[in-house]
Structure to design on (272 residues):
């Protein structure tokens, strides 16, 4: 009888160990990640980030309820790499401040989780301008590769603009100077979102191209160390502006619109 009880007890302990080990393996397989790892947001947008598969901490008052009934896990620490572009509150709610790019970081359980955020102001743009600008901004943070045309695996400056416009049926050469020659010349004071800005000490020495996204900003494949980024349009000497879009027109043909900063209002083209 004692042997049977001992055998039964041994069996139960073994079963418990197996289940415990299985649970540990299952827990180890669960990967924590943010619900979004990349965001392209308009100025009026708002997004809430949260760590998926993680049970909120409720010990030591680690879980509180905000005024809008959102449960906030105060053990998660949220941070924006650039508060002038985007802010994040204790609930993980992301709010745009100005056009640009930044990174949101969540710290929890000794680990970091990140989300790349790109903010754009699409107000007043034509449908085609919105499509081109929004599409181009999806690839911010992706790598630069000399001679490349891949928006995900790597592109150089003209490879980036070539591939963006190829998506919409426009054909450009894989060369910054040739793109300047082939596109419609536009004065800088009349620049519109979607136009290309060319850089160099002179037109003959044009060596770089970027896509204007409005509010004095461009998106471009910059260098191997920085990849595809958003910059101020005057980040280096420019030598020309070229227009690719054929359907975009000025709001008023008599208006001249210089590139604007965040301190002023930018006017854009509208469709015919």
């Amino acid at each position: 009888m004692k042997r049977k009880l001992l055998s039964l007890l041994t069996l139960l302990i073994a079963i418990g160990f197996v289940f415990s080990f299985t649970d540990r393996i299952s827990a180890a397989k669960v990967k924590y990640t943010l619900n979004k790892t990349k965001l392209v947001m308009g100025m009026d947008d708002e997004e809430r980030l949260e760590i998926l598969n993680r049970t909120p901490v409720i010990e030591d008052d680690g879980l509180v309820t905000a005024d809008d009934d959102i449960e906030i896990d105060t053990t998660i620490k949220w941070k924006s790499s650039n508060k002038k572009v985007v802010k994040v509150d204790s609930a993980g709610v992301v709010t745009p401040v100005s056009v640009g790019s930044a990174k949101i970081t969540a710290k929890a359980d000794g680990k970091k989780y990140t989300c790349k955020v790109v903010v754009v102001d699409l107000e007043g743009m034509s449908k085609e301008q919105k499509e081109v600008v929004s599409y181009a901004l999806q690839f911010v943070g992706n790598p630069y590769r000399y001679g490349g045309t891949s928006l995900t695996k790597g592109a150089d400056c003209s490879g980036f603009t070539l591939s963006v416009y190829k998506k919409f049926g426009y054909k450009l050469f894989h060369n910054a100077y040739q793109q300047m020659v082939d596109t419609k010349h536009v004065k800088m004071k009349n620049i519109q979102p979607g136009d290309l800005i060319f850089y160099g000490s002179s037109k003959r020495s044009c060596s770089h191209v970027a896509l204007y996204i409005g509010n004095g900003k461009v998106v471009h494949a910059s260098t191997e160390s920085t990849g595809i980024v958003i910059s101020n349009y005057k980040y280096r000497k420019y030598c020309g502006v070229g227009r690719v879009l054929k359907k975009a027109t000025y709001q008023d043909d008599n208006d001249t619109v210089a590139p604007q900063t965040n301190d002023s209002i930018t006017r854009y083209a509208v469709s015919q």
